[in-house]
Amino acid sequence: AEPPGPPTVELAAEAGGPAANDLAVAVLYAERSGASAAAVAREVNRDIAAALELARTQGAVKVQSGNASTWPVYGKDGQGRITAWRMRSELRLESTDTAAMSELVGKLQETLALAHLTMEPAPETRRKAVADVTVDALRAFEARAKLIADTLGRRYRIAHLAVGDHGLQPPPMPRMRAAVMAAEAAPAPLEGGESRVSVHVSGRIELLD
Fold this sequence. Notes:
By secondary structure, this protein is of the alpha+beta class. It folds into two domains: 1-22 and 122-172 and 195-209, Translation Initiation Factor IF3; 23-120, 2-Layer Sandwich (Alpha-Beta Plaits). It has three helices and seven strands; from the N terminus they run ββαββαβαββ. The protein has helices at 37-55, 98-108, 123-151; strands spanning 8-20, 23-34, 62-74, 82-95, 113-120, 155-169, 194-208. It has a four-stranded antiparallel beta sheet. Strands 1-7-6 form a three-stranded antiparallel beta sheet. The protein starts with 7 loop residues before the first strand and ends with a strand.
């Protein structure tokens, strides 16, 4: 029979830290309805094309087309007849220049409705924050493993280790009303703040003599 292996202990540690919300993300949309699906599509596409042309003049803001969908509107007589068509098409904007984003969103709201406007960490900002927090989580795991081994008068070695991040935990933000601004366009207020990233480390150590 094989000799029994060394005793093992399973443990975990976690660390968290801030990540600056330095990327503004906005989704705006054009939505129209009418008796003709083709006419509705022409109107929506015209609105989106004009918005794209305006957005591309702002070099500090990345713009791309988003989701687009068309669906029938049925009458209320219970006969299942299509009485109209509705179409919605979206634009997605991203920028680390909050002043430029705020100004552009304000202008676009003359013709488009705002679905949402949020601040979040840019990809590189998030990667750096996760890397820093990973170091903290590993050090916390190491400290806990050493505490267990020292308390039991043993040395230890790591038999298994798993590291994972929990993604972003954004701060609570007020809901923004998605409505077309018929009045003069005004810059949308943007405040960065911070999100929180967390990293979880779990593993198993072997206790040695």
